[in-house]
UniProtKB/TrEMBL annotation:
It comes from Oceanobacillus jeddahense. The lineage of its organism: Bacteria, Bacillati, Bacillota, Bacilli, Bacillales. SUPFAM superfamilies: Homeodomain-like. The keyword DNA-binding applies. PANTHER family: ARAC-FAMILY TRANSCRIPTIONAL REGULATOR, HTH-TYPE TRANSCRIPTIONAL REGULATOR EXSA. This is AraC family transcriptional regulator.
């Protein structure tokens, strides 16, 4: 089916035919681009991001982006910024607008949500009627709530391991161990030993189940743990980078900007104004 439905809270788009986009676009909405199968690649201002089946990319309002490759189907949701931020402020008690990390993300809850929406709309050829509009509006609000705690963003200063409860037990054991000692000098051998797997097998399984490599997950978790220190302490950026487990402040600054499109200093100043 090819379908585009627009409501007060957002837009649903499902396409089986598409062309590569020649120009970047930036829209005043949050976008969830979900890969239903195969490889999907988008070009952003700072990097190209490739994600695979059951993974997603979350774009913030006015993030410039261009579709480079989409396999199989295109599933896209646009969410009204006011609705998303109202949900964030209610759930997280923050006044600043939410920023989603620019990275492949993968959570079982979003996978189930996508499957439910597609199942509901499958075979419905009629135009948007009142019942479907109410259904989609409520579904978009539900999606916003799932994204608050189930995705990596700058409001929730952690990575919620509950979203990985369906991931096999050794992988979760490694996650829990890394979270307990996130500023330690971890190696792939250390991680694989906890999982009791060959390190190459462990790395493959971790990326397949979580969406990023084990070391990337650790670095992202370090960024998330640093957000509280940026917002609520007077520690220098160098101190925060070192205490968070980074080998240099330049690496910390580079990854922070890659994820959130701003420097740690800018994030700190924006929260203290």
């Amino acid at each position: 089916m090819n379908k585009m439905l627009t409501t007060n809270q957002g837009l649903f788009l499902f396409k089986t035919e598409f062309e590569q986009e020649s120009l970047k676009r930036s829209d005043n909405c949050y976008k969830l681009i979900y890969s239903l199968g195969g490889k999907t690649t988008y070009q952003l201002s700072r990097q190209d991001i490739t994600f695979h089946a059951d993974q997603m990319l979350l774009l913030n309002p006015y993030d410039a982006h261009r579709q480079l490759e989409v396999a199989h189907h295109k599933f896209l949701i646009e969410l009204d910024p006011q609705m998303v931020n109202n949900a964030a402020k209610t759930l997280m008690d923050h006044s600043a607008n939410i920023q989603f990390a620019q990275m492949p993300q993968q959570t079982p809850q979003i996978t189930k949500w996508v499957a439910f929406i597609l199942d509901y709309l499958q075979g419905r050829e009629e135009d948007l009627d009142k019942s479907m509009e109410v259904f989609l509006d409520n579904s978009f609000i539900q999606l916003a709530i799932l994204l608050m705690k189930g995705s990596v963003n700058n409001q929730y200063h952690d990575i919620n391991e509950e979203v990985y409860r369906s991931v096999n037990f050794p992988i979760r054991q490694v996650m829990e161990a890394m979270k307990e000692s996130y500023n330690s000098n971890w190696t792939l051998d250390d991680m694989a030993a906890i999982a009791q797997l060959d390190k190459y097998r462990f790395s493959h399984v971790f990326k397949e189940k979580v969406g990023v490599s084990p070391f990337s997950w650790l670095q992202i978790y370090r960024i998330q743990r640093s957000l509280d220190k940026l917002q609520f302490t007077n520690a220098t950026i160098l101190q925060i980078a070192m205490e968070s487990g980074f080998s240099s402040v330049s690496m910390y600054n580079r990854l922070f900007k890659k994820l959130y499109g701003m420097t740690p200093s800018y994030f700190r100043n924006s929260r203290n104004t």
